[in-house]
């Protein structure tokens, strides 16, 4: 375990930062894990008008879920987020998962 992996494990376990989630792909059995969630607003330009779009970004430890793909679903309480795009961080320790509500 690297220092980055250990730090991410501590952050995800923190009740003020991490949250319980359930990951699922299609009809596969759901997997319960801890994630870090951020919901930054993105500014988009559409026909000369600025639109504010809410987004959801999850940080997921690679060792807790080694394969995440577009179309997979995360349930966080009553909210269901559908994966739009995934990318690994530079160290290969975490997924950055962009989701749509």
Question: Any descriptors?
Answer:
101 residues, mainly beta, Thrombin, subunit H, six-stranded antiparallel β-barrel, two-stranded antiparallel sheet, 53% strand
Question: What's the short version?
Answer:
With 101 residues, the protein is mainly beta. The chain contains 1 helix and 8 strands.
Oligomer: single chain
Quick check: average pLDDT?
90
Largest sheet, order of strands side by side? 1-2-5-8-7-6
CATH class descriptor name: Mainly Beta
Helical segment tally? Answer: 1
Taking all Cα atoms into account, the compactness measure Rg is 14 Å
The biggest sheet, with number of strands, parallel, antiparallel or mixed sense and barrel status, is: 6 strands, antiparallel, barrel
Counting structural domains, the number is 1
Any idea of the CATH topology? Thrombin, subunit H
Shape verdict: globular
Structural class: mainly beta
- Poorly predicted spans: none
CATH architecture: Beta Barrel
Written as H for each helix and E for each strand, in order along the chain, the element string is HEEEEEEEE
Strand percentage: over 45%
What is the terminal-to-terminal distance?
Answer: 33 Å
Number-wise, the strands total 8
Helix residue percentage: 10-25%
């Amino acid at each position: 375990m690297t220092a980055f992996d250990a730090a991410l494990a501590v952050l995800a376990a923190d009740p003020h930062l991490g949250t319980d989630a359930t990951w699922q792909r299609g009809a596969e059995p759901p997997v319960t894990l801890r994630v870090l969630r951020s919901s930054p607003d993105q500014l988009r330009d559409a026909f000369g008008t600025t639109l504010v779009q809410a987004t959801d970004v999850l940080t997921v430890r690679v060792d807790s879920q080694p394969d995440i793909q577009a179309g997979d679903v995360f349930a966080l309480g009553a909210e269901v987020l559908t994966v739009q795009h995934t990318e690994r961080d530079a160290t290969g320790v975490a997924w950055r998962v962009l989701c749509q509500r």
